[in-house]
Structures are given as structure tokens and as C-alpha cells.
Amino acid sequence: MVPITQLSQSLGDGLKRLNAQVSTAESCTGGGIGEAITRVSGSSAWFEAGYITYSNTQKTAQLGVPAELFSSVGAVSREVVEAMALGAAARSGARFSVAVSGIAGPDGGTPGKPVGTVWLAWADGDQVISECRQFDGDRQEVRRQTVNAALEGLIRIVATEMSLRG
Fold first, then answer.
1. Model pTM?
2. CA 25, 30, 36, 42 torsion-angle sign
3. Where are the beta strands (DSSP E) in 10-154?
4. How far is CA 90 from CA 65, 96, 126, 156, 165, in A?
5. Quick one: pLDDT at residue 101?
6. Burial classification of residue 13, based on how many CB atoms lie within 10 Å of its CB (0-12 exposed, 13-18 middle, 19 or more buried)
7. 19 burial level (CB within 10 Å; 0-12, 13-18, 19+)
8. 3 state SS of 32
């Protein structure tokens, strides 16, 4: 596994080449993605904002996630993380964003959404991709794996944009 600081540096290098910024919308990682990004000196040139929206109320207030989603699909869902990613980008003005919501444990799991279930979404403008991952380990390990996956996904979408530009 690539060290988190190395992933953040790689992300920053790509964003600088594109002259673009990124924002984060975090629930289960509690700011871990933003912390990883800001380990890199000069990240203020490409890290726009981080939203730690642990409660559903704050997901709605800070990111514009429709409140009715929580009762219909739950906070740990594709619909919520996609809304979080779009909200973070729109509210910060960053071109790219990542959002995460999951069950890090040790409590909170259900048969349908066991501990380690994490939804991630990445936005580039109004285009969003998302995926559900199932991570193993204790709370800290689930959170660490989520930060890694979030950064790896950002690197992929930035690299895709760079390849399109030639």
C-alpha cells in the first residue's frame, strides 16, 4: 500500500498541473482526508476546503444534502455521498471533490450495512462517480483504508483529466 503522504503529494502534483483545487466532505473519516492532504507543503495552492459533516443535520446544512435521503436510503448510501461530493464542490468552488460516509465501528453495523461499509464519491464539475467498499479491521484501520481509497480515487480522476488534455 502506498503511504498516505505519498498519495497526497501525487494528488497535489496533478492538481497543480491542472491549476485545479479539491475539497473534501467527510463523515466517517472525521477530517482524515483533509489532514492527509495538508501534510504536503504548499497544499494551500490546491486544497480549497474540507467539510467534516458527521451528523445528518450538518450534511444538509453545510453541503445541501436533501434531508429526506436519510430516512429513505440512510446516511451510508450512494445518494448521500454523491450529494455530499457535489455540495462540497459547489460550496467551495473547487473543481474536484471527494466525499465519504461509512460505518467505521465497532458499533453501528447492521446486516445490510455491516461495520466496514463505506460509500465514496468523487466529483469533477457536475460529473460524479461512486462506489461502495467493504473494509476490514478495527475502527482506525477502516478509517485509514477509507482515506487511502479516497486519495487514490482523486488521483485517478485527475490523471484521467490530464490524459484528456494530452
1. 0.97
2. positive
3. 22-26, 47-52, 96-102, 117-124, 127-134
4. 12, 10, 9, 21, 23
5. 98
6. middle
7. exposed
8. helix
Amino acid at 94: A
> Residues 85-90: what's their mean pLDDT?
98
Rounded to 10 degrees, what is the CA torsion of 148, 36, 83, 20?
-110
CB 108 within 8 A of CB 34: no
> How many residues make up the chain in this entry?
166
SS3 13: helix
Q: What is the mean pLDDT of residues 107-129?
A: 97
C-alpha dist (Å) from residue 66 to 41, 78, 113, 157: 36, 13, 21, 26
What is the amino acid identity at position 10?
S
